[in-house]
Specification:
Layout lengths: L33 H8 L6 E3 L7 E8 L5 E12 L3 H25 L7 H4 L2 H13 L9 E11 L4 H16 L8 H11 L8 E5 L4 E5 L13 H8 L1 H12 L10
Antiparallel strand pairs: 1-4, 2-3, 3-4, 5-6
Helix pairs in contact: 2-4, 7-8
């Protein structure tokens, strides 16, 4: 388990994650920092879900800035896949049995009851809370399907967010669709790593993903720097007044700290 979150139910806890594979193994000008990438891909750690939970894929991005000021950009698609290990499923059920036993004990302790008069001394509110506990805070290996979070990430020298997002979504579909893609998955990964070049400044580049073509555009020397992030999302997240205030602070060269979950 990652962090001190044992009071949470097991499906709400976070667990330690690790990098399963990365390609290529290493690049001289951009050495792979496994710990940093692992933390940035899953900042809250590994998480589990059941069929009753929302498991929609989520996309986020990050920036690694080195001491010399150079940057690399990461684009991450997090999704949930079914746990096939019987051992992990059994361990999750055991965690729930231990957690519910502790919760049951705390409810009994709060009602100041003895073991002999347990049934009669729990008041109606405690009984209701116990019923809710068993209904929502449970995992039954024979009834529920367990899912675990997983990430696929692209690390790039320029922030081509839209192109990376489209490629990752297509790659995810290729993994989850019943109908396999025209070529093996390794072909598409090799293509984007070794065969798709950076577009020259001021030019566009069209390359083929798994199912559909993808276009990325690089601004020219006299244009504004590449900013592939949708402004609409900024307005939705911050609101108009906050965004105007942040922009004013930028123009006044004030220090700005954005804090979020």
């Amino acid at each position: 388990v990652a962090g001190e979150n044992f009071d949470q139910s097991p499906l709400r806890r976070t667990f330690k994650s690790k990098v399963l594979a990365h390609y290529p193994q290493n690049i001289e000008w951009n050495p792979f920092d496994q710990d940093a990438v692992n933390m940035l891909c899953m900042p809250k750690g590994l998480s589990f879900r059941t069929q009753a939970d929302n498991r929609d894929p989520q996309l986020h991005s990050f920036i690694i800035t080195r001491e010399d000021g150079s940057r690399t950009y990461g684009f991450v698609l997090t999704f949930y896949e079914e746990v096939t290990s019987k051992q992990i499923c059994t361990a999750m059920q055991t965690l729930y049995q231990m957690h519910n036993a502790e919760q049951y004990s705390s409810v009994c302790a709060s009602s100041s009851c003895s073991m002999d008069s347990l049934a009669s001394s729990i008041d109606e509110g405690d009984a209701t809370s116990l019923a809710k506990l068993q209904r929502y805070n449970s995992y039954d290996i024979s009834r529920d399907t367990l899912y675990v979070s997983k990430c696929i990430c692209l690390i790039t020298p320029l922030p081509f967010m839209q192109a990376c997002k489209k490629f990752l979504i297509q790659l995810y579909k290729a993994v989850t669709f019943q109908q396999p893609p025209p070529l093996p998955l390794e072909s598409y990964i090799h293509n984007i790593l070794y065969e798709v070049p950076l577009p020259p400044p001021g030019r566009s580049l069209k390359f083929y993903g798994v199912y559909e073509p993808i276009i990325c555009q690089r601004p020219g020397p006299n244009e504004l720097p590449l900013s592939d992030y949708p402004l609409r999302e900024v307005f939705e997240l911050l609101g108009l007044e906050n965004l105007v205030q942040v922009f004013t602070c930028v123009l006044l060269e004030m220090q700005i700290l954005l804090y979020s979950q």
